[in-house]
Amino acid sequence: MKPTKPTKGKKKASRRAQRKRLYIALACIPLVLLVLAFATPQKVVRGTPTATEAPAPSAAASATPAPTEEAAVPRLSLSAAPEATALSERSIYYPFDRSLFTADSRGRISYSGEGYRCMTGIDVSEHQYDIDWQKVAADGIEFAIIRTGYRGYTSGGLYEDKYFRQNMEGALAAGIKVGVYFFSQATSRREAHEEAAYVLEQIKEYDVTMPVVFDMEILGTDYRTYNMSRRTLYGATRAFCEDIRAAGYEPMIYMTQYLGYQKYTLRELTDYGFWFAEYYVDYPSFVYDIDIWQYSDTGSVSGISGNVDMDVYLIKE
Q: Which CATH number fits domain 114-316: 3.20.20.80, 3.40.50.300, 3.40.50.11540, 3.60.21.10?
């Protein structure tokens, strides 16, 4: 028996059904691709670099170029939930009652918030020249952060501050607690390790009981650090601070609002102290918790000719 030949109407209906199935299949392709993309596991690196991202040796140890920092730095979404660190036991966000910052008749800042005590301090370098540290102590200064040296912002050489040793000896003899800072222009982890080793060698004969500070500043287009990426800055900062901590000192990071917001990823550095600079305001307006506030660059202290930076250490008890 011969098969029945389909009619013209049935042929049109069959073609319409085929086209409909094709349209449905095509419409599902983007959805399938989207599902596959989100189903692919993504590795998120958090915290300290892993063993495979070990710090490069110092320049003195090896002349071999250091590996790139790109792989050693966490990539985090800015919307990621922050974590408080066990080391610092603090919230990473601003914990202060702004109304409790007060200034005395000389403009010296203190904070009366519950759970805090304050120390009044200064930071100095060769730019203050000769300092009479006995007069400084008598004027109520309890601590000083003294520059050990710096890396040249164009040449990249390491140089000791001309007054470093004189300032260290004078401050300690006057009973002032001392910390130090190094003006960094490191453009790699290797250079940051080199800077840390340089500082540790400088301070080994002194009683340093206050923080050892990584002071990275990017002040102009002619600075060798001007185009440094956030990831490279993170790697250099952590390299310096970890070396300082390993040697038994307290590491700290100096920053302005520009560095804090535009250059650093501070959520990944909250296991170090923050020294924050902001002038001509009644309280620090930074969104992160800080340990030292540098509130003036025009302070007046007996024993120092000219202006000096003023600091308040916000110590949690």
A: 3.20.20.80
